[in-house]
Amino acid sequence: MLRNTMRKISVIGAGRLGSTIAFSVAKERVADELVIIDIIENLVKGESLDMGQACLCPVIGSTDYSEISGSGLIIIVAGIARKPDMTREQLLGTNVKIMKSVIEQVAHYAPSSKLLIVSNPMDSMTYVALKESGFDWKSVFGMGGVVDSNRFRYFLAREFDVHIDKVQATVVGQHGEIMVPLASSVQIEGATPDLEKIKRAIERTKDAGREVIALKGATFYAPAHATSIMARIVMNDEKAVVPSSVYLEEENVCIGMPITLGRNGVEDVKEMIMTPEEREQFTVAARTLRDSLSKVGY
């Protein structure tokens, strides 16, 4: 019997973040089958059994990449973890090699899938996945903008003492130290704009990942939740507008921009209104990403 390719999700990487992502995706109940792939057999089999018994849904854990065949969406988390004193860019050299080996398997077993990249440095890994896979650019996109925008909204809600549902805000650019939280995008229902509060929220947002890593070693829940949101949007063909790392031809990088996301991947890229200062920050982020990629042969 032929599998329905849009009801199967595979997660590559069963470490602490990968397994948290897989569990978050399983709880969304948007897939009839969930596959987790990792090089450590006991780990991935144990995670799949534990997860399946919690969600009461089919979860397959394996070291065999052939299990991803027929996946509509593949979430790639594989790579070494970021240490407290590391920038995302310092991860690049090692994780490029890991990403290339993963993409070779993905392109062989699931050439019609959409790829959601979580591995850090996320924008660069999205670019590597795109180039190594040979997939259409609309089929490869990165997670960072959703988690960064959620963090921005969280800190704004705390600064303005309002419920987060009353806060709208967007982060574009690099998922990293030179991200661009757009002050110009901030809308807070029932609150008077206060630039000092917005500036404090921007600084907390830029440092959010590093702060958590310094305290507990790694971030899990925020990126896992953001990834599950994107998985749900794709699998349900919601055609929702979210910030995501996407290929821009002129800059020749993958970088965070608002996109319309659906079953076919990136439906379109939205033009973001920015102030001149924000536009300059975005340009610097794109240039930095291009320089980093050039250093590793891309």
Task: Give a structural overview.
- The model is unreliable at 1-5 (pLDDT under 50).
- Helix 3 (92-109) packs parallel to helix 4, helix 5 (144-160) crosses helix 6 and helix 5 crosses helix 7.
- The chain is of the alpha/beta class.
- It is globular, with a radius of gyration of 18 Å.
- 50% of the residues are buried.
- The strands form four sheets. Strands 3-2-1-4-5-6 form a six-stranded parallel β-sheet, sandwiched between helices. A three-stranded antiparallel β-sheet has the order 11-12-13.
- It has helices at residues 16-28, 41-55, 92-109, 122-133, 144-160, 195-216, 221-235, 276-295, and strands at residues 8-12, 33-37, 59-62, 73-76, 114-117, 140-142, 167-168, 171-173, 179-181, 187-188, 240-248, 253-262, 265-269.
- The protein is built from eight helices and 13 strands.
- The longest helix has 22 residues, at 195-216.
- The chain has a domain at 5-143: Rossmann fold (3-Layer(aba) Sandwich), CATH 3.40.50.720.
- Strand 5 (114-117), helix 4 (122-133) and strand 6 form a beta-alpha-beta unit.
- It starts with 7 loop residues before the first strand and ends with a helix.
Topology:
Blueprint: E1 8-12, H1 16-28, E2 33-37, H2 41-55, E3 59-62, E4 73-76, H3 92-109, E5 114-117, H4 122-133, E6 140-142, H5 144-160, E7 167-168, E8 171-173, E9 179-181, E10 187-188, H6 195-216, H7 221-235, E11 240-248, E12 253-262, E13 265-269, H8 276-295
Parallel strand pairs: 1-2, 1-4, 2-3, 4-5, 5-6
Antiparallel strand pairs: 7-10, 8-9, 11-12, 12-13
Helix pairs in contact: 1-2, 1-7, 3-4, 5-6, 5-7
